[in-house]
Design a protein that fits this description.
It is a single chain. It contains five helices and 26 strands. With 361 residues, it is of the alpha+beta class. It has one domain: YerB-like (YerB-like fold, 3-Layer(bba) Sandwich), CATH 3.50.90. The N and C termini lie far apart (134 Å).
Amino acid sequence: MPTPSTVVGGVSLCAVRALHLSARRAAIASLLTLSVVLTACASESLPAPLPTPSITYTSTYVTPAPTVIAPLTGEVIPAGTALNPSLAAKIDNHIAARPQVGLERTDIVFEELVEGGLTRYVAIWQSDVPDEIGPVRSIRPMDPDIVSAFGGIIAYSGGQQRFVALMQAAPVFNAIHGQKATADTFYRTKAKAAPHNVLVRASVVVGQHPELPAPQQQFAFSLDAASSTAAKDGQPASSVNLVFSNASAPTWAWDAARGQYLRAQLGVADMDSAGAQLGATNVIAIRVGIDSSLGVPKTQLVGNGEAWVSSAGKTVHASWSKASPTSPIVLTDDQGVTIRLAPGNSWIELVPSAGSVTLIP
């Protein structure tokens, strides 16, 4: 048996083992060295971590100012504005009184039959009160039934004492020409002949009565003209032709560019004092009875009847009702649904039952 010093192939087993051990140690050392080198390389190739960004957000949102609906026009206005009372006035419509002053800035105008087949207006300002209005004339017995729903102020030049007493009993402040209280606010202009020349310093009159509240909303309104009842459910109406009498026949022609119906009387354009044709966003024609027992025509406005409401170039058939002098006029369609007007000014035509309403597509 060979001993530990046995020589194999000329090399002793001890030498072979030594060589193997040395090789293993060298390999392990190489691996360790490579690992250190790779680790070093890896750490050198990685970028340093970036700091976590600190982001500050700045909001650009601005809380919108609060808004409300103007009670007589349905237009959106800043909250806290148009808190003043309404000013109604009995406005002359005689040819010698035209063009009237401030009529183009009204919120609502009522046209009513008076003597001789002529008409006069009860015009109402609230959201846009001009410096002056007129010419004003005397009242008639139906006027308390019109203005009582609005409250505020009524300006006129007088009238028969029995009719003045009716107006003074209404829930409105009476501003009457020729009285001491109106000496500084009513005057006669030299631009027109009497009796068609009494003007009113409207903004001064309104400013004298901060104790009077703003009027209540009178009608339902849509958000815009396109969503008004007439625009959605009505029939095209390029013209609304009315007959009060042989002496009074106003017409309203749709003008898409202005978004209004434009007014004419007996075929002649009805102009304002600035030379522009009078217009209305809504034209409301209601059929009314006429009581002649008082010696002058009295429109019977407390009651109900047939109506036509025109907005945005279309007209919807309707019914109207007014329960009392202090109640607003209620407008409903043929299904009994409340009619919504387009936001803007309105003219209410109190057409006698003996007159007519004709729609031209």
